[in-house]
Amino acid sequence: MTTVLISGASVAGPALAYWLQRYGYRPTVVERAPAPRPGGYAVDFRGASMTVLERMGILSAVEERATRMGAMTYVKETGKVTAKTSPAAFSGELEILRGDLVDILYELTAGTTEYIFDDSIAAVTQDESGVEVVFDSGTTRRFDLVIGADGLHSNVRRLAFGAESSYIHDLGYYASVCTVENHLGLDHTGQIFNVPGKTVGTYSARSNTEAKALFYFASPDLTYDRRDATAQKAIVEEQFAGLGWEVPKLLDGLRTAPDFYFDSISQIKLDSYSRGRVALVGDAGYCASPLSGMGTSLAIVGAYVLAGELHAAGGDHVRAFAAYDVRMKGFVEACQQQAVDGARWFIPASKWFLKVRNLTYRLMPYLPWRNVIREMSLKVGNAIELTTYEGLPQQHEVPRP
Ligand SMILES: Cc1cc2nc3c(=O)[nH]c(=O)nc-3n(C[C@H](O)[C@H](O)[C@H](O)COP(=O)(O)OP(=O)(O)OC[C@H]3O[C@@H](n4cnc5c(N)ncnc54)[C@H](O)[C@@H]3O)c2cc1C
Q1: What CATH class is the domain 3-381?
Q2: Reduced to 3 states, what is the DSSP secondary structure of residue 171?
Q3: Who has the most CB within 10 Å: 103, 167, 376, 382?
Q4: Which residues form the FAD-binding domain (predicted)?
Q5: Mean pLDDT throughout 393-399?
């Protein structure tokens, strides 16, 4: 049985493990965190990824835990509403909290996949017949293939492809998200306040029992310690200090938040998603950034295609990885372009464009092209033709070592 080590147990990793075990492979997932990571922001699905969820048999489970968000409201400093966007603009066809999705994927695969938590790959050495992997824990094991599903700052990519600086393209923005009190009493909705180059907002989550605060800002490259949350919070506070609306209250929430995300808004661009017996899936291979709204769809579809191509090539990884590159390229490019286009609208750079945006959103419901945002994002979500990979054997239990 072909053995595959997958690094990362978020979205792409468990989704890939699901398909691999269905095709008769033996997947092992190694995750740096001590358990599946809960919480996090809302992520959404559009287009082809909905079909993949259905083929995985988890569409209804995701629907059951969907956020069911309504329109997003844009407000002035005084809180007065200036514009609204339809649910489809922010929440796609189906939206769920990232942690809830990870739960569903873990539950789906835990019985058939070996999971190793609290560990990471320290070294990979490839030869003709396989890959020798040394783990941080000191264990050494051999696998037929190794897949990096370990996100924007992928460890596997660094080990097999080289330094991140060669592949990462910053879009010139930073994003921060944390859980706060739903102090505005938002009911399945969110509010956004802008000044040029900065977007701050809050949206309700978990049936309005809590809210997420989001802070996005334009900035040249910042130097900071990626493990120092206190220093990162200080950056956010400095960026948003002195702003009106609910910003002081949201910054209070940020200081004591139970969770915290901060990173540059960046994309990963590679000519090929593999090097020999090592390949990448999801953000590790082709991160489109949060501004695309397509990262989760890319991860789910990418996992489906990668496993499907391995199956179609009868396990010949050279042929499969080449086909995977070809099938994903156009889809990845469309999703990445959507982030570049979307940035102008989500984080307007000038007072003038901010006015244009709000006016456009205000008029949108009355214009003949009122559904343009939904249609454009659906077009991107469907910018891949899904192959039906034949010959799925019955689901089987993989014995745990
Ligand atoms: C603020 C924000 C908002 C977003 N909004 C949306 C949205 O609305 N719609 C959407 O589709 N997408 C959205 N995304 C993007 C989406 O979250 C990602 O595209 C998606 O999670 C990618 O999944 P992934 O499995 O490839 O990587 P990730 O979710 O990044 O997971 C990587 C996993 O690898 C693990 N890992 C990292 N390093 C190691 C290591 N050395 N060893 C072992 N494990 C490791 C991590 O702990 C993590 O579990 C958003 C992202 C952010 C940050």
Answers
A1: alpha beta
A2: strand
A3: 167
A4: 2-312
A5: 49
